[in-house]
Design brief:
single chain, alpha/beta, Rossmann fold, Immunoglobulin-like, 3 domains, 6-stranded mixed beta sheet, 4-stranded antiparallel beta sheet, 15 strands, 48% helix
Length: 381
Amino acid sequence: MSLALILACSLLAADADVAPPAPSSRTSGLHDKASTTKTVMAADAEALAEGAARARGEDPARKVPLVLLDLRADGVDVALASAVSSVVGSELFDLGVVQVTTEEDVRRLMDFEQMKLILACEDEAKCLGSFQKALGAEMLVTGSVGKAGSDVVVGLVLTDLSEGVPTGREAATIKTPASLVSEVRVAVGRLLRPLLAQRGGTLVVLGNEAGATVLVDGAAVGITPLRRDNVPSGPHRIEAVKDGFLKGTVDMIVHPQQTSAVDVLLIPSKELSETHKRNNNILRILSASTAGLGVAAVGSGAAVWWFQYDRLNNPDSGYIAQYAKDPGGAILLPTTKYNEISTLRLASYGVAATAVPLFVASAVLFSVSEDPGKYDALLSE
């Protein structure tokens, strides 16, 4: 591992303006100079890291200091390895649980001479310890970018600098340029899984379909809409499945001690969309028809009531013109005529009253129906 670190740091020398020191410069006071340089560089590194973190609005005290060295190009173009390194750095930063120092940050802190002094060690543990002390880091991420057939393979190694041993290895296989970010995100999340599990957040999953089964990283956890606490922070693959719909998938990041919401879109199959449209059109038609019958019932009741009223009170042909009135003004009708008017009046009330259940039924049918064209826009996209 010490050799890997020295090689990685040696890459910095290619861009440095300061030439390597002549052998004669290594005097008996080398160790004192190295010790002094280490102390100064450690203070500078810590100050730079804290200043950069505060400038980004972060709290350095609650984030684990981590150094990311540029990934080694293994049979691929150096520019590709550099681009992948940038993606890894971005994904590490987005996790929100580590304070990332990149090789570019290191390049600004040290020249070739100072790096050699810091890494002047005899074994791996001392070398990593010196690296940790100089940069104030607790973890180190290294790796490579190589080829496997037509695929690009990104290998990542996480080293605990306090122990001096690798604690995790992950690989991401990139089949298309479009999948680079998502695959690297997943690999980074797996690499830091133990750390992320200690810093959970709240996950809220919404969607255009209620009752869809939600899977987080392949495990079913509930149905939409879903709220789940203590979800390990970091990248997750959120999926929603429901009969008749194409599976919806979203890659997202849960941030520590925050609520992270995601909206998963489910696209219906053509058959489900057509069935939905047909069934809900029927419900809407039945609702409108039932409401129409209710209106007709009210109209019929009113017509019957008006008929009996006219039969009784028409000044020309009504009973009011045929029969006398009592002292109170009521028409003195024979029993048959009285029963006729009473029957018509009750009939008008009865017919009008049938409108109430018809209107209720219409409202229920409409409420259980959905927009028949609900999925038209989704299928047209």
